[in-house]
Specification:
With 222 residues, this protein is an alpha/beta fold. It has a single domain, classed as Aldolase class I (TIM Barrel, Alpha-Beta Barrel). 39% of the residues lie in helices and 19% in strands. Strands 1-2-3-4-5-6-7-8 form an eight-stranded parallel barrel, surrounded by five helices. The radius of gyration is 16 Å and the shape is globular. It starts with a strand and ends with a helix.
């Protein structure tokens, strides 16, 4: 049976990382400097958390940097082998990163605003390791963490034709994640606000979210 993977984002402490790993997270998101959005931590803390994450769980650095050199430097300092690029950078930036840092995996965020995202996904596909569909508005420097749901029909179209793993983010909670999985069939989910209370990772909300994901996977397998 295929299993929907889980990335818990906005990790802000070693303790939160341990809780997420204990609950079965496949990846943890560490949010670098952003113009907007929740969960931003300093690079020193991100490095400390990354060092605490046990294999095979992946520590993923969210970066808003724009050039290949800057993104690689950011990843090296924090000590991660995967970056989540939250801006719509040129595909040539990815090509340059492949040349300079072939060890670095690249998860490109696509902000689902309208039908144009499908062409954007096609343009990026040859250049990235995976894509993440989120609900930001990059023209106003809103790069994620909005807590808003976008048009899952558009997300489903991208999943149906993509040859890369697709992560789904944006307004996911234990109440809607089952429908999200059924509607989109993503490779993985990315959740931040939906498992938090007062800005802190909430054990009960995380447990409810994980249970809803597993129940949805079981329903699809029947």
């Amino acid at each position: 049976m295929s299993r929907t993977r889980l990335k818990v984002c906005c990790i802000s402490s070693v303790e939160e990382a341990r809780l997420a790993v204990d609950r079965g997270a496949d990846a943890l998101g560490l949010v670098g400097q952003m113009p907007t959005g929740p969960g931003v931590i300093g690079d020193e803390l991100a490095r400390e958390i990354a060092r605490s994450v046990p294999l095979p769980v992946a520590a993923i650095l969210l970066t808003s940097r724009l050039t290949a050199n800057d993104i690689i430097d950011h990843a090296r300092f924090v000590g991660v082998s995967t970056v989540q690029i939250v801006r719509h950078v040129e595909p040539s930036v990815h090509e340059r990163m492949v040349e300079l840092a072939p060890w670095l995996r690249r998860l490109q965020v696509l902000h689902v605003e309208d039908e144009s995202v499908t062409a954007l996904a096609t343009a990026y596909e040859p250049h990235v390791d995976a894509v993440l569909l989120d609900s930001g508005r990059p023209l106003v420097s809103e790069l994620g963490g909005t807590g808003r749901v976008h048009d899952w029909q558009l997300s489903a179209k991208i999943v149906a034709v993509s040859n890369r793993p697709v992560f789904l983010a944006g307004g996911l909670t234990h109440m809607n994640v089952g429908l999200a999985i059924k509607s989109v069939l993503p490779f993985a989910l990315d959740v931040c606000s939906g498992v938090r209370s007062g800005g802190q990772l909430d054990r009960d909300r995380l447990d409810a979210f994980v249970a809803a994901v597993r129940n949805a996977d079981l329903a699809l397998a029947r």
